[in-house]
């Protein structure tokens, strides 16, 4: 167990390119239809609208992180004082913009216009692209636990594909194992694409999961002890019974986000 934890965390550390908790400067544009982002590389589909209230974003490769960044929350503020408010907007990452070389983010029009001063929503949309500052923030789903959705491609009992929804805190899931409830015979799952994990080695019976998540300067196991019933069904969302509240800290120089106020 310790070997796999260190292995996955070493992969994560080698791919880290910036301090998520720091304030960054970039640009943002928008898509007129939120469906362009909800159907994006993370694979959330229409559920993206439920977990974010339509405040969606696609991010560049350093934010998407080969799918590990799916579901991450960011606060974004426009820097044009004649059009934009000081509060900005909060978004959930749902798509990959690795091909984009103009902006770090493409937002849904709802999220983009939320950065505007009252009555200036159409004005900011006409700009099309704006200078921004942004930082990653913890996701807070209040009374909603981390949930597991069984994907339509799953075939009980031979193949299981899942994705995690409503992930709180400020972490990334970097490994997933599955086992029959009460068993210590764990099978690892692979990241299929975006937020989707799958395996062809599906244990029989009711299923439990354990996750390796970034936490503090290291990582830790999260154990969801009884999640899927033995007769789990495709398309159904199951409550994990727990929530992630950790905030990962990168081992980099301290950053000053005091100007964000």
From TrEMBL:
Domain Expansin-like EG45: 39-144
Biological processes annotated in GO: anatomical structure morphogenesis
Pfam annotation, one family: Expansin_C
Protein name: Expansin-like A2
Superkingdom: Eukaryota
Record keywords: Secreted, Signal
Position of the signal peptide: 1-18
Residue span(s) of domain Expansin-like CBD: 158-240
One CC-aspect GO term: plasmodesma
Family: Belongs to the expansin family.
Compartmental location: Secreted
